[in-house]
Design brief:
Length: 364
């Protein structure tokens, strides 16, 4: 079962990495801002193709090799190898990204892209009124289930076994235990609560982020930005809900041992993994469709260009701009949002949940 999970994850990574160069904005290629008149340049298209072909080629070799050899190895060795291969694909993707990013940045400097275009910054004060992001309390609804489970856990404390599970294996059965205490029985709920608060915080910080309007296509970019914000809002809300269902399911198995049969203990986590992977792919496709439908540059706007903010993007991934009030900004590579590292509050969002999760994990 573990081997099948690793193969599924590797296939998912391959699909995602192969479609990202196609789905991403034409104006931002491998973290580099590309003016409209250079977006179909043969060099730009070459590096997109190079990325996809190189990633798919290595991924295909690793997948085929693992599929042929996994049943000839011991289960523990096969699982460890699968984990190594998953991380290898992630590292390979980063290597290809940084190579293409460096080459495009070098090409941009040599050719002087956008040096003759008029730089224009557009502010649309009415766009925020059209924002269709979900209200914060919709994203926060799963907290009600968490609070209910806190109450249920404490009321059933005396009936909970003295040894409680803290980890479940790939077969759906617990393989690690700890002694019962008032903290240990709610540690997974505390972790869930921290993650829920983090999701709400990200959602609301995204709502307050700026709506970036393109000088070359103000109408289309406004539609695109509003669409991305709406899809991101729904994606966060759904993932928050599904995550709550999974951890609530595991908490009930702690409170009432044996309430779920072995098949259900196996199928629920697998269903969660499948839902998250398919949902992420669907979200990426939605964003890609917005990019292709609303990134048209009109002929009378070709003499202007957006401000080139490459300076604020380190390696095209990390955004540092203390003058930008937005805490979250749209990624330049991939789909979704990234944090503005130039804002002190960013480190609270990054380090706060990590520290709390480490503390909770240590005492579990």
């Amino acid at each position: 079962m573990e081997q099948a999970m690793f193969i599924t994850i590797m296939v998912f990574l391959t699909i995602m990495q192969s479609i990202i160069p196609v789905l991403m904005r034409k104006s931002h290629v491998f973290g580099v801002y590309v003016p409209d008149e250079y977006q179909n340049d043969h060099s730009v298209l070459f590096y997109k193709k190079l990325y996809v072909v190189s990633y798919v080629a290595l991924s295909g070799i690793l997948l085929l090799g693992y599929a042929l050899w996994m049943n000839k190895l011991e289960i523990s060795v096969s699982a460890a190898l699968g984990l190594v291969l998953v991380f290898s694909l992630m590292i390979w993707g980063l290597i290809l990204y940084f190579y293409c990013h460096g080459k495009l940045l070098q090409l941009k400097r040599q050719t002087g892209w956008s040096s003759t275009l008029k730089k224009v910054n557009i502010t649309d004060l009415g766009a925020r009124k059209l924002d269709e992001m979900l209200p914060w309390y919709i994203v926060a609804l799963p907290i009600i289930f968490t609070i209910g489970l806190f109450i249920l856990t404490f009321t059933q404390y005396t009936h909970i076994p003295e040894s409680i599970p803290t980890h479940w294996g790939a077969n759906g059965q617990p393989d690690s235990f700890t002694e019962k205490s008032y903290f240990s029985v709610i540690s997974s709920l505390l972790l869930l609560f921290v993650l829920q608060i983090m999701f709400i915080g990200i959602h609301e910080a995204t709502r307050k982020s700026g709506i970036k309007i393109s000088a070359a296509n103000s109408a289309g970019s406004r539609i695109r930005q509003l669409g991305i914000r709406k899809y991101n809002s729904w994606f966060l809300a759904i993932i928050n809900l599904v995550m709550t269902i999974l951890l609530s399911f595991l908490q009930l198995s702690i409170i009432y041992p044996g309430i779920f049969n072995q098949s259900l203990m196996l199928l629920v986590p697998l269903a969660f993994l499948a839902f998250v992977l398919i949902g992420t792919l669907a979200y990426a496709m939605k964003i890609g469709r917005l990019n292709h439908e609303h990134e048209v540059v009109y002929p009378d706007k070709k003499e202007v260009s957006d401000f080139d903010s490459d300076y604020h993007w380190k390696a095209g991934i990390f955004y540092f701009n203390k003058n930008d009030p937005s805490l979250f900004v749209e990624k330049r590579f991939g789909v979704g949002w990234t944090i503005n590292m130039g804002r002190p509050l960013a480190y609270v969002y990054i380090l706060g949940p990590i520290i709390l999760i480490i503390v909770l994990t240590f005492f579990m």
